[in-house]
Specification:
The chain contains four helices and 18 strands. It is mainly beta and 273 residues long.
Length: 273
């Protein structure tokens, strides 16, 4: 059975490679977990005549959603950390954990813009287009977020560690409290607490939240507001303390009473389940 699954996986990857130049597995990716980028040099969209059937090594060269943390190297000498793996039949791959590889802080940008990159030999060549250079054309790889939470306040990713980039999204269109509906940019704040080592820690007291700009949620449009942070850096916890849960309440900038905050609290467990 394992052998059949392995063959089926190879056929699946082969079929995808035959249909497109560059793609990522899994397509619905958690930026804190490992993904694999594949590039099919034989696909016409690669526009890489000097790379087809080339024994390599082949390297990725990427600039969006940001430059890689380790750096691309120079055009004449790519960084060896960006060397790809030859999968055979002109299919090359590269594994990474996006949040670490790119040091991404804008999670939404990762999903709205995707990855922009090309592939090349260590020495990219003399210039003048892909016919003269040892590289592909520019490639864009689209990535979708992992489907999951459909609540008013949602975590992303679902499984994360305290040292991972983490985003909490508030969907104001799902707000049932009339006084909290139709909120605008600059009026949405997050009261944030965590439990670490059995103790409760908070970024700010509830009353002082508006005096902490790091607690303003970003207006993403369509009624959605987000805040992205690394929990162990965000909360004033002692060194070495282990965060077990996060506790959130969304409130308005000006608080005059219970109508100016969401009802209840949201508790989110930290760590893989």
């Amino acid at each position: 059975m394992k052998k059949l699954k392995f063959i089926a996986s190879l056929l699946f990857i082969g079929n995808i490679a035959a249909a497109q130049t560059a793609y990522v597995v899994p397509k619905e990716a958690d930026i804190n977990q490992e993904v694999t980028i594949y590039v099919n040099l034989k696909d016409p969209g690669c526009d890489c005549p000097n790379l087809v059937d080339n024994p390599g090594p082949i390297y990725i060269w990427t600039w969006n959603p940001s430059d890689p943390k380790v750096g691309n190297g120079t055009w004449a000498a790519s960084n060896d950390a960006l060397k790809m793996t030859d999968e055979g039949n002109n299919l090359w791959s590269f594994k990474m954990i996006p949040a670490e590889f790119y040091e991404i802080t804008d999670v939404q940008k990762f999903y709205t813009e995707g990855i922009n990159m090309l592939v090349k030999l260590k020495d990219g060549g003399s210039g003048g287009g892909t016919a003269n250079e040892n590289k592909s054309g520019d490639l864009t790889i689209d990535i979708d977020p992992v489907p999951g939470c459909d609540d008013k306040l949602c975590p992303f990713p679902i499984n994360f560690g305290q040292d991972d980039y983490f985003t909490v999204t508030y969907d104001n269109k799902k707000e049932e409290k009339v006084a909290m509906q139709n909120l605008v940019a600059g009026d949405v704040y997050l009261f944030a607490r965590c439990v670490a080592g059995g103790q409760l820690y908070e970024v700010s007291s509830f009353a002082e939240v508006p005096n902490h700009p790091e607690l303003i949620m970003v207006d993403e449009g369509e009624g959605k507001f987000t805040l992205t942070f690394i929990p162990e850096d965000f909360f004033p916890i002692p060194a070495g303390a282990e965060i077990t849960s996060l506790i959130f309440v969304v409130r308005r900038k000006v608080f005059n009473g219970p109508d100016d905050k969401m009802d209840g609290t949201v508790l989110i467990k930290v760590g893989c389940s």
